[in-house]
Amino acid sequence: MHLVLMSDTHLPVRRPTRRVLPAELWAAVDEADVVVHAGDWMDPALLDELERRSARLIACWGNNDGDELRARLPETAVADLGGLRLAVTHETGAAAGRERRCDARFGPGGDTPVDVLVFGHSHIPWDSTTPGGVRLLNPGSPTERRRQPACTYMTAEVGDGALVAVRRHALPPGAAVRS
To answer: Where is coiled-coil annotated (predicted)?
Structure first.
């Protein structure tokens, strides 16, 4: 099962240039079995388009999302993907103490035990495993790199109930801009 992970798309932003979801990412979405979005959409039109183009979409709202997106999406979504338990939520707090906090909620003794937690908010790609065994993934942002070297998203494979072949993709400069 092929996954595409994204977060913090923040679309559209109308400035002198307009951000768009990069063509490379749309191509990945079109090929994926499951698309995961960890919030901060900003525009319900992107949710509509991802629902239309995704074979399966697992998503949540973020802190910048308004009432319409919050009405359509949960704060945390949980799904079973071929025996792999996956959750997606926007915020997990500061990097310091993240593994401990995520274990408390999503680890084996937590309220929502999962194998993988996809999160966003920081725009900083992250890949770690908590002491309790929860894989934490933040795909970064495909449209707003902030202080990161590049805009990013992730892909992964699920096989035999396990997450394998996690890969971070750096997008070329300007890939998310349309004038």
So the answer is: none
The CATH classification of domain 2-173, taken from the options 1.10.443.10, 3.60.21.10, 1.10.10.10, 2.115.10.20: 3.60.21.10
Q: pLDDT digits over 67-96, tens only?
A: 999 999 999 999 999 999 999 999 999 999
Q: How does DSSP classify residue 110?
A: S
**Summary mean pLDDT of the chain:** 93
- What the block records as the tokens of 115 is 């194998």
* Token couple for 173: 């400069």
CB atoms within 10 A of CB 168: 17
Comparing C-alpha atoms, which of 171, 63, 173 is closest to residue 125? 171
Which sequence spans correspond to the domains of the chain? 2-173
User: Helix H segments across the chain?
Assistant: 23-31, 44-53, 67-72, 98-106
CB 110 within 8 A of CB 103: yes
